[in-house]
Amino acid sequence: MRTVTAESITKAFIDYIEPETNPRTRFVLESMVKHLHDFVRETGLTHDEWRKGLELLQKTGEITTPERNEFVLMSDVLGLSSLVDMVNSPDDGTPSSVLGPFHILGAPDLAVGGDMKQNNDGATIIVQGKVSDPDGKPISGAEIEIWQTAENGLYSNQDTKQEEYNLRGHMTVSDDGVYKFTTVRPAPYTVPDDGPVGELLHATGRHPWRPSHLHFIITAPGFRSLVTEVFPSDDPYLDQDAVFGVREKLVMEYVEQTDKSAIPTGLEIGQNVTMPFFTVDFDFILARQ
């Protein structure tokens, strides 16, 4: 070890790993360290730059809370979260997209046709569709978790004026795979840029804006879980998402309606919608495990 050099230190690290180490752990760790060491050699990383990087990670840990995971956000703005999604998305299912840092567990139950809008300001949006397998067969009993921002661009766990689970719900689809609910149109918003993620964005001249979207987690026995987002086609930030979450197959249309005959049956609110209202039809396909 006393003869280790800048060229041999990577092999020295790998030789330290015991043979009985889990093969997948060994493979991932070896690959990560090889890339890290190559990065240092390629850039000629200075001590000041190394310390700056460690400070950024330290600040990321210090600002992280149960309500705000800055590490997830850092992964998002670096494109890492989306790359992991794309690498692991099956070809025969709806593409996945980033979970984001504002998901919370325990959303209240929402019946098919239920109202998430409640007392929130904004036009009524009617969202509906089906959850099917790759052959088009509806998946009875699939569970959907839904969450979004309010019209002010804030999630409930960012905004003390909102109730804890505002604009969040957990739904079990009908026997024919149908989901349906009413809500408000979420607004484009900025990811938090008052911490280390903001330092990175500002240092590189990037904006923190995300296009508006609806979040979904969809699960069913025998199928791969789907974590995804759905984006409107007319959003100004659709092609410049700060976290690289948009996929072509995740773009939907808000259709403006002025005739109540366009209201589907089975809604909790019945015909009691603001005018004009908007409809969204979006189907999900779950890939088999």
What's the architecture of the largest domain, going by CATH? Sandwich
User: Counting H and I runs of at least 4 residues, what is the number of helices?
Assistant: 6
In the predicted model, the low-confidence regions spanning at least 5 consecutive residues are none
Q: What's the SSE pattern? A: HHHHHEEEEEEHEEEEEEE
Which value, in Å, is the CA radius of gyration?
Answer: 23 Å
Estimate what percentage of residues fall within beta strands: 15-25%
State the CATH class of the largest domain.
Answer: Mainly Beta
Q: Main sheet?
A: 6 strands, mixed
CATH homologous superfamily caption of the largest domain: Aromatic compound dioxygenase
How many E-type strands? 13
Counting helices, strands and paired strands, the structural category is alpha/beta
Helix fraction, binned, reads 10-25%
For the residues shown, what is the average pLDDT? 95
* Shape, principal axes of CA atoms: elongated
> CA-to-CA gap between the ends?
46 Å
CATH topology of the largest domain: Protocatechuate 3,4-Dioxygenase, subunit A
Oligomeric form? single chain
Number of domains: 2
